[in-house]
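JOB MANIFEST
job_type = single_chain_structure
chain_count = 1
residues = 303
[input]
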Amino acid sequence: MFGKIIRFIFFGNYFVGILAVALTVEATLQLKLPFNSLNYYLLLFLAPTIYYTYAYNKVSTAPSTNNPRNQWYFKHKTFINRSQAVLFICCMLLAINLLYQNFQHILALPTSYWAAIIIIIVAGVLYYGLLPKSFLKFNLRNTGWLKAFVIGFVWACCANVLPLIMLKIETGVGYHDSVLWTWLFIKNWMFCTVNAIIFDIKDYPTDANKHLRTFVVRYGLRRTIFNILIPLLIIGLISLGIFASYKGFRIPQVLCNVLPFILTIYVAYSMHRRKNILYYLMVIDGLILFKAICGIIGMQFVH
């Protein structure tokens, strides 16, 4: 029973929805902003859950003997289709309610906000190639080494851009500390990019067969770990130390923000041993949740 619940949460991508909310709460606290409405957080949870499930369900057309997630999708295809319909209806109702309550504020958004919205939508649509191939064949995930940076960019936008847009829509409040916002955006972008590169290790055989030149395919597993992942994380630690000194962070706050980098370095180092799909979904994606929790706890030491 416990195993079924775990597969339901992680294969069903409900954990992805939790990550989206957790990162947003972390960013909101770090930027010292008011929280968005419950309507927005529910929408934020449902949208990526539906998005990822649609993408995986679309490619899981036959049972695979060596891919437990494909097997799960094939076995529960009827349930997934029905749950997707229910979640989509809920998502639409929440979106319509948000639009109804804030229609005039949405129309009055500055041009820069609309530009950000368009960029996020375009990146999200192209991210999994969700448009019909007859309409547009380009898929950002198939751009090899750029794939991980695209994933990191979409998640950073989810955590650091969308809350500001929604705050402007719901309260009219803008944000003006561009230095702190820029640093947090880049930190989230790079952390999620490193996470995506680690996750690519899972897809190494498939990506190699498709001639998709990800970092792991291009440089091999060992060089990816020691020449890309660990150096990027060390650079992140150094930049964190410099920024913490500049902003006058207290030691407990610094330690809370350092822990996710240390744990990610350890996980990256351990990736020379192959893992099963649930390990990647629970531990690798779990690093993002751990980072969000540490960031939230760290803000409790700020006065």
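[summary]
The chain has one domain: 2-301.
The mean pLDDT is 83.
exit_status = 0
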